[in-house]
Amino acid sequence: MTKNFLKDYVLITIGILFVAIAVEYLYAPNNLAAGGVTGLAIVINHYVPFASTGILVLVMNLILFVIAFIFIGGNFGAKTIYASFGLSLIMWIIEKFFNPQAITKDLIIAAIFGTFLSAIGMAIVFNTNASTGGTDIIAKILNKFFHVDIGKSLSSVDFIVTLLAAITFGLNAGLYALLSVILNGIAIDRVIEGFNTSKQVTIISRKNKDIGQFIMNELGRGCTFLRGVGGYTGKDTFIIYTVVGRTEFIKLREYIKGIDSKAFITVGEAHEVLGEGFKEIGNM
Question: Does the N-terminal or the C-terminal CB of the chain have fewer CB atoms within 10 Å?
């Protein structure tokens, strides 16, 4: 059992805990059915109050996984199965032992902070190359049998759930649920970008060899030397190209400032980096 394997499952557990808290303390008590299987469970719970939201999510995920194995194969992976049923279990534990109550009755605050917590949790799960099942399975079934794009399928399922929420809880709650769905998709993308963001750095300096050695030996990162010609001086020069983490860039900047105050540095954001020293391409 590798270190990365354990790390992924710890991160998934943290992620689904965030999602469960958002559902149990912000969404469900305020009847905000913000899409997906959890949103559908909130709607069904209104009509079948003796069945808790956590149990309903578990039952629906079991049914969906069975359908998926029969009709589209079992290409979901152990991490997705763990995340899916782990979320149901955590929700059940919260409902059974902690008697969850709404943190706030203000729908706009519940929608914003519920989306914030849920997006962080989902982003953590997605970043381990897993998902919480549910909606993804429905989307893949629609894609296979009705040839609807996965993205459109996901949006369609969430829209149907929020429509059911509007019918069940009223237009006001339905619109807030739709707002949560829209914000959630945007927020997840932004959080994932934040997890994976690195600094893409190019450096022109008379101390290029020293800087290259610092990058490789002190920061443990690779770098590439590109041949260039100064436009003003006409002299041959080397341009150093490297990608480093945010804290590593601070160290690199301070080092360069200390040995060559006239160095020229450009810095850009790299939202995802694949390869040695970063996320392995084979794990994608």
Answer: N
